[in-house]
Design brief:
171 residues, alpha+beta, Aminopeptidase, seven-stranded mixed sheet
Length: 171
Amino acid sequence: MNAVLRPEPAPRHRPMAAADLEAVMALEVTAYPQPWTRGNFIDSLAAGYHSVLRCDADGALIGYFLALPGFEETHLLNLTVAPAWQRRGHGQALLDRLAAWAHARGDLALWLEVRQSNTGAQALYARHGFVQVGSRRGYYPADRQQREDAVVMRRKVLGDPAVAGWTDALD
């Protein structure tokens, strides 16, 4: 018997909704020692922040992001990929969608903070054109009521020829 190899269906993308919060929270608590709260997500959705879920063909959650649109810039607040799906291009795909959306809005830049200890995420962001522009002392909660510094990163959107070609990421 010959096995026929079929490519996996492409992941699907859609906006996050309140009905998704059970799955989002389940992923959030597995991905981070100090996760966002349900209230953080509810407030972000109620405020109209831009959000995207990435799901597999069966609808299982792979990852998501939430971003705060501002004047000529967008601030990435949370990008999470399920640990089982990490290092397989899903974080990159979510960043591509965010950059294409920001470009379509006419944003000049994307901003984010990332834990100083999260070198894997920093490397992903650097591969995506983000550069460190500063730090925020004691920005994140850490274990035993300690705080952890954030690395502040920025990337150019308008005027970056690489981003102009990402409009297909919105399909």
